[in-house]
Amino acid sequence: MIVASTNKVCNLEDDLMPFLQKEKQPNFPITEDFPWVVDALAKIQSMFQENIVGPNELLEKYKQYEYILNVDRKQLIKDLFGESKAAIKDIRDQIKHYDDAYMAILNLSNDVVDYPMFRVMAAKMKEQLSHQANKIKETLLENVYTYCKKTVEKIFQAYEHMNKVIMTEPTNERELVATREFIKDTPNKVEQLSQELNEVYRHYCLLDDFSYKYADADIETFWIQKQWPLEISSSLTDGLYMVQNKEVLFMSKLDQEKEGFVKSIEVFKQNLEKIKKFTNLDHANEYAQDAQQLNENLTNALEKIK
Amino acid sequence: MLSKERRYNFLSKCVRESDKFDPDKVYNTFKHLMRVVEEEYIRQMKKCIVLKEMQDTETHEKFAKLKIPIRLPKRTAPYFGVVRCPKYNFSEYLGDVIKQHWSSDADLVGMTKIFTKKSIDFLEFRFMNTNKTVLKLPRELSDLTKIQNSHHQSVSQNMLIQWRDFLIGEIQDKLRRTHNFFEANQSTYEASPLKHIIARFEYILNTYLREFVKTSIEDWTSFIKSFTLPNYDKGELWKIQTTPIIVVHLNFKKAESKDDKKKKAAKTAKKVEEESEEEANKINYFPRLEKCEAFFKSAL
What we know:
The complex is a heterodimer.
Chain A (H helix, E strand, L loop, with lengths): L1 H7 L3 H5 L18 H17 L1 H11 L9 H9 L6 H19 L5 E3 L3 E4 L1 H45 L5 H37 L6 H10 L2 H49 L7 H22 L1
Antiparallel strand pairs in A: 1-2
Helix pairs in contact in A: 6-7, 7-8, 7-9, 7-10, 8-10, 10-11
Chain B lengths: L3 H13 L6 H32 L5 H6 L24 H11 L5 H17 L9 H4 L3 E2 H35 L10 H6 L1 H33 L20 E7 L5 H10 L2 H10 L3 E4 L2 H10 L2
Parallel strand pairs in B: 1-2
Antiparallel strand pairs in B: 2-3
Helix pairs in contact in B: 5-7, 5-9
């Protein structure tokens, strides 16, 4: 600016002697290569370089947390809570990392930092960066909470189904066998569900560690699941008793059917013997009906055996 | 009293070595030294008065009674001796000189006075505004740029109108009766006394303009320097400013959504978009420190 403005001040002669029609010349022609300008630029450059050291150091401190701005939250959630859920330790590490980052960012510097040449306003940056870290932490906690709720719901459904199956009265031998098999496998399933519930408990503890506010109803639902093993145990006793009774009932029924079957076989034998005595074609109609009847009876009997 | 330079050296030494000594001891030493200096100064002044009095022969008796030896300044004859100047018509020569000299023209003398006064008055100004009270620092770079541009533009305009154009007007007004400003012939003009008069004013203008530019540049660098910390090891010493010059913000450019990008692509050129893409989600100073440096340098 100074150089340009100085060159605008032309010689007096150019205006004092208008009829000489002289070309306007600067009174003090100066360029940026003039020693005063070169020296001043060098001084400014040197002073500036000395005075940006502090602000640059502060900038570097903040740049350490720049990655927070580029975290893909969806991908992070997918990695931790996707198809194969990550171990609780990994989740805790991640949450702790962002929690620590949040605290560290808030303590990086004062809101306003004065250097000799520059006043750095850092409040907004601190707020945005810490907010971002906190948001990631909250998203992770939210997902932990969702996992807890969903798992508790799944466990509840499993227990309820288990109880229902155990307590359902079998109507035939096939159902009886299925119920007996189910009851046999139930303790393993209960053990597995208990372990899952313990895992959920550890996740709730994780939420507590980071002061996450969850609904009272959800934690009540969680504790209610703890009663299920006892209820299942009681249902198992009842179910086993019911299965045994049904088994006896079905056995006696089977015996009766067996006896009836043996008797009908005897009748079929007699019918067969009678048919064997067929020699006269005049009685063909009578014998044909008997043979037809025997055939139907034998087919029915075969079906029963199957 | 101590000279300004000696005071400066003494104070810088005190500041430089302030951490090496007990502050009370330094204070007492300094107090003692100042007392010695003051006493020395008074003694020297008294001596000067006494020597002055001694030059008067009437006082010699008084000093003899007081048993003070008389000391008179010694005058020595020049080594090559002195030759008497031959007689000449001084008043005639003096008249010629007076006639030849520019000061014989009352209008020119008046004009020179006006020219010089105006130029000296203008030296009070600066190309850049370095008045910290007016600037109310620290400020945003954009504000500071606006203020400086406005100030610079105003000073430049004043320089052209109130200084140069005023002087041209004054010269023409004062000298138009005795000189022809409408001469169209170059050679006639070259031989005329007006050429010398204008050249003289050109030199005066050049001298003041140089001083004005130099002062403005030095003032601007001093202004920036006053916002840096003095290096005591290098013997630097100046008042440290309580406030900085420029306010910079730590910030980052948010990455744009796809919709925003589409809208922007329609409006702006590709290059701008690529730049913003590079800067997205990267923490930096706004305005950039490089821009601040460019602002300081752009003043020149």
